[in-house]
Amino acid sequence: MGEKPNVLFIIADDHRYDAIGAAGDRVVQTPILDSMARTGTMMTSTHIVGGVDGAVCVPCRACIHTGTHIFQATESQTIGDYNRTGVIRAGMNTMPSWFRSHGYYTHAVGKWHNDRASFSDGFCSGNELFFGGMSDHHQVPVFDYDANGFNPPEEPRIVKQFSTELFTDAAIEFLEQYSEEDPFFLYLAYTSPHDPRTAPEPYANLYDRKQIPMPPSFMEEHPFDNGEMDVRDEHLAAYPRREEEVRGHLADYYAMITHMDHHIGRVLQSLANTGRLDNTIVVYTSDHGLSVGRHGLLGKQNMYDHSIRVPWLIQGPGIPAGTRIDQLTYQFDIFPTLCVMAGLSAPEGIAGQSMADLIRGETDQGRETVYTLYRDIQRMVKDERWKMILYRRSELTGQGSDCKQLFDLQNDPWELHNLASLPEFSQQVERLEGELRNWMNRTGDLYADCFL
Prior knowledge:
Helices cover about 25% and strands about 20% of the residues. It is an alpha/beta fold. The protein folds into two domains: about 375 residues, 3-Layer(aba) Sandwich (Alkaline Phosphatase, subunit A); about 80 residues, Arylsulfatase, C-terminal domain (2-Layer Sandwich). Strands 1, 2, 4, 5, 6, 7, 8, 9, 10, 11, 12 and 13 form a twelve-stranded mixed β-sheet that branches. The chain has a five-stranded mixed β-sheet with strand order 3-14-15-16-17. α5 links the parallel β4 and β5. α6 runs parallel beside α7. It is globular, with a radius of gyration of 21 Å. The mean pLDDT is about 95.
């Protein structure tokens, strides 16, 4: 292989898989991401693996960084062990550390929601780094990083610039100033479209709150207690849900996405201006999805597709243009896929699988099934047509329900018709229960006994 390609890895926060024009949303305006889908490949069925507390973003990011599932990726996945569930396990190869060890200059901008040790191990430098979960988008606590460590060393400085613009400007500054011969790995992590969804004008009023269409899966109330009805995210709107209020949330959500889309365009233009676009692999994804009113829910602490599926767009040298791939994938497949696309071997022993051959059209095989977990109360398994969710009442909190859902995604993509109790679908339920057991055993699911 000739000159190694650069890598620009862009990750958003809370961006649902289908809230992109190219993915089928007829309301949201995402011309830049739509262009990426035209000039590259769109993976339409990429899934998260889940988490054991409301901050699903933390383990999902650890899985992306390490190319594996949470029971391998982090120091702990014990419910309530908040100090360690976000710490990447010592000795794990992370995506930035792996590329760094293979001759790449690694630089980070924006959100790193895991521990400082794994960050320092992976990156040569970084600026405008945010280590929290969320903040006021207009007052962002950030650090810089170089060979001398973090600056400031302990407490962050507060920058009064909208987060998306702050991170974009920092990424562009790196691209314009980088002059080394080594290829770069630039990690750009936005906190948008996470709440508080306060996009600046003219984006704040871009969408008419009275005209936003309601999704077919809008419900005033979720049909049963899923075990996590009292988490912070679910208190962002009144319960039962009202269409008028949910429309407002959707308008604000779309405004944040469109604003971010514009600034991603600025980064890509900087790549072009510096002559690097043609030799840079660009990835766009998110840590997880979000309900925003679907199924009577607001947050991501559930197993419906709107919460467990994320965007995955990829463009660059060797990547087909205008290709849509619907086969099942995981977000932790991105790491080994990027390795292959960059001409590197992937670390041994990780759960992620390279999808490079699938992207290049050399195979039509993705994953046969995927599974996702949440706390000790929800487990999901699906293939390309059938999806089953198991719910349990938590032994720790007493919340939740012992029930089951089965959806025929081919005929019911909005997950509205539960077929689990119908005798004619008993074979599908039994088959998926067996597949779920296999997944829990393979991954060492700490709470498998609750579902077996």
